[in-house]
Amino acid sequence: MKLSPSIKVGLKAEATQEVTPELTAPHIGSGSLYVYATPAMAGFVEQTCASKLSELLPEGQTSVGVEIRVRHLAPTPVNNVVHIKAEIISIDENLVSFAAQIFDEMELVGEAEHRRAVIEIDRFMKRVEAKVSELSSAQ
């Protein structure tokens, strides 16, 4: 699959997110302290990168997350805002790799590497439907 020429190394994406109680470790189930949860940070990275690619893909294509590595460096309390800066650092056929930094109002709180695969929706959904069909017939 040939990617849109608008998807290129160096392309940047930014977003902000308020740390609500729903994004804390106890709510998500990843810890006991009421601070920004690592899974919430990972989701924020995926959401930001997916949104950027979505803007650039033609109809019939989307992207799916295939790999993420997150380093959570510092706590962020509830009601603070986190800001992400992500950048495409490499493209290998249909795989787009991002590097991201996440800051709260005081410091760098996280770093991430994230890879997304650009896919044809129809082809992907045929695989999903085949799995559903096979699982249904096995029961």
SSE inventory with pairings:
Layout: E1 12-18, H1 25-28, H2 38-56, E2 61-72, E3 81-92, E4 95-103, E5 108-120, H3 121-138
Antiparallel strand pairs: 1-3, 2-5, 3-4, 4-5
Give the tags.
Thiol Ester Dehydrase, Chain A, 139 residues, 3 helices, 5 strands, alpha+beta, single chain
Find the structural class using helix and strand composition: alpha+beta
Counting DSSP H or I runs of 4 or more residues, the number of helices is 3
Major sheet, described briefly?
Answer: 5 strands, antiparallel
Order of helices and strands: EHHEEEEH
Report the strand count: 5
Radius of gyration, in Å, reads: 17 Å
Strand fraction = 35-45%
Give the integer mean of the pLDDT values: 96
Helix content: 25-40%
What CATH architecture do you see? Roll
CATH class: Alpha Beta
Oligomer: single chain
Low-confidence stretches: none
Spatial ordering of strands, largest sheet? 1-3-4-5-2
Distance between the termini: 36 Å
Describe this structure in words.
The structure is a single chain. A five-stranded antiparallel sheet has the order 1-3-4-5-2. The protein has helices spanning 25-28, 38-56, 121-138, and strands at residues 12-18, 61-72, 81-92, 95-103, 108-120. The radius of gyration is 17 Å and the shape is flat. The mean pLDDT is 96. Helix content is 29%, strand content 38%. With 139 residues, the protein is an alpha+beta fold. The chain contains three helices and five strands. The protein has a single domain (12-138), classed as Hotdog Thioesterase (Thiol Ester Dehydrase, Chain A).
